[in-house]
């Protein structure tokens, strides 16, 4: 049932909106509510503050400085010789070039897929048993494998991390994180049976009501953004598809939640 849904999804009719200017707002882990930018005609999302929080909405931040990516490929995968960083003929970016055989090695972003599993007005979260972010809560998600679709990968990751057999309902969000070379695709899903348990990479799994989601103990900026958008959608009575770019602070690790910016937020 997913293919017809994707063909008819309103995102396909709003692709032109990607070129319009968007508002950037700084998100800080300790500053709630968390606003996400959205251009007219839609009003901006105002993320609900946690209980007892008196923090005000943060002011817009200046554009980040351009980041020059440096390849981490130090040795040629083909012959094992050291590589050097240089701009190949006809290219415009620094690449890892083998000092012996001359092969140019490219690095491409990785796709992360996962499920936002809904059951009895709650969402399924897993507490990580591995680094990074050991002991923190996350949605079941992981890297897409060669030979599988994004929906298949999201279902597989949910089965591996939460031992939960799920049915994909619809795509919910695409979140690009250029600094760390990742793109997330998160699907809404439902449990086929009300059974789940921790997989090898999880300490525990649990269903959380929206007001009980442990936002102070979530593993990644992508998970915070996804769950904030979902919470606001549910409370507004209209669940949408979301796209945005997460700009992490230069030098921040994937699990560093101290600050990050949201760009180009589109909800359709």
TrEMBL record:
Pfam families: NUDIX, Zn_ribbon_Nudix
Coiled-coil intervals: none
Source organism, top-level taxon: Eukaryota
Biased composition (Low complexity): 45-58
Region ranges (Disordered): 37-64
Domain Nudix hydrolase: 108-231
Matches recorded under SUPFAM superfamilies: Nudix
Official protein name in the record: Nudix hydrolase domain-containing protein
Lineage: Eukaryota, Viridiplantae, Streptophyta, Embryophyta, Tracheophyta
């Amino acid at each position: 049932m997913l293919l017809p849904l994707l063909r008819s999804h309103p995102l396909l009719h709003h692709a032109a909106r990607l070129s319009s200017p968007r508002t950037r707002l700084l998100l800080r882990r300790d500053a709630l509510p968390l606003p996400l930018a959205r251009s007219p005609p839609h009003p901006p999302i105002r993320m609900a503050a946690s209980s007892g929080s008196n923090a005000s909405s943060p002011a817009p931040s200046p554009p980040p400085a351009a980041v020059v990516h440096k390849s981490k490929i130090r040795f040629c995968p083909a012959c094992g010789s050291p590589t050097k960083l240089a701009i190949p003929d006809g290219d415009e970016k620094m690449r890892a070039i083998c000092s012996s055989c001359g092969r140019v090695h490219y690095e491409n972003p990785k796709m992360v897929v996962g499920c936002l599993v809904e059951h009895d007005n709650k969402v399924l979260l897993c507490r990580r048993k591995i680094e990074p972010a050991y002991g923190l809560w996350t949605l079941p998600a992981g890297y897409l494998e060669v030979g599988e679709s994004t929906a298949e990968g999201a279902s597989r990751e949910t089965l591996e991390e939460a031992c939960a057999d799920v049915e994909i309902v619809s795509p919910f969000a695409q979140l690009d994180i250029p600094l760390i070379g990742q793109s997330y695709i998160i699907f809404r899903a439902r449990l086929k049976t009300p059974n789940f348990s921790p997989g090898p990479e999880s300490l525990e799994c649990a269903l959380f009501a929206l007001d009980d989601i442990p936002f102070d103990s979530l593993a990644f900026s992508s998970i915070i953004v996804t769950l904030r958008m979902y919470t606001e959608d549910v409370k507004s009575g209209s669940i949408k598809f979301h796209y945005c770019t997460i700009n992490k602070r230069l030098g921040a690790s994937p699990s560093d939640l101290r600050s990050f910016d949201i760009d180009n937020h589109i909800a359709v």
